[in-house]
Specification:
CATH topology: Rossmann fold
CATH architecture: 3-Layer(aba) Sandwich
Strand content: 5-15%
Shape: globular
CATH class: Alpha Beta
Radius of gyration: 14 Å
Bound molecules: 4-nitrophenyl phosphate
Number of helices: 5
Distance between the termini: 14 Å
Largest sheet: 4 strands, parallel
Structural class: alpha/beta
CATH superfamily: Response regulator
């Protein structure tokens, strides 16, 4: 099973989701069953590490996302991943626009898995530190929901 988190720049929300979700998988003993990646719909930050504010907020909760590097959504992602999960509606529109007709992946908003129909993870880039905390709160809640969903689809552990 493969999961791709997508935001705009791949330096704040989606690398945070990648790191947090991977840690939650490990906590549930599922680290070897699910591959996780993240990317941005934009290319401005390709090759860069996460925003220092995202690094600090993640680190305060015990998540290390320092090794992640930004990349842009690629055509091959639509074949590679089973779940392509957007942080907000603009990301979702961009993912859908570039989506090939034969794509089998589940494409949707990540917060669906926190029981939040149609809710976005707000872009924290132009805000303060509190925005990064909120991002992590939302990501942690949705990560647990996504793990529940994946458990239904994985062979019994
Ligand atoms: P992200 O945040 O999409 O969560 O990585 C942003 C990063 C950079 C920009 C906007 C949002 N930017 O405008 O450069």
């Amino acid at each position: 099973m493969r999961v791709l988190f997508v935001c705009l720049g791949n330096i704040c929300r989606s690398p945070s989701a990648e790191g947090v979700f991977r840690a939650h998988l490990a906590k549930h003993g599922l680290a070897d069953c699910v591959e996780v990646d993240s990317c941005g719909v934009g290319d401005w930050h390709v090759g860069k590490g996460p925003d220092p504010r995202a690094l600090d907020a993640a680190s305060r909760r015990g998540f290390d996302i320092s090794a992640l590097r930004a990349r842009q959504l690629a055509p091959s992602d639509y074949q590679t991943f089973d779940y392509i999960l957007a942080m907000d509606h603009d990301n979702l529109d961009a993912i859908r626009q570039a989506c090939p007709k034969d794509c089998q992946a589940h494409i949707g908003l990540f917060l669906e898995f926190a029981g939040e129909h149609d809710r976005a993870v707000p872009d924290p880039y132009y805000g303060g530190e509190q925005g990064f905390e909120e991002v992590l709160d939302l990501i942690e809640a949705a990560s647990e929901g996504l793990i529940e969903e994946l458990r239904q689809r994985l062979p019994r552990q």
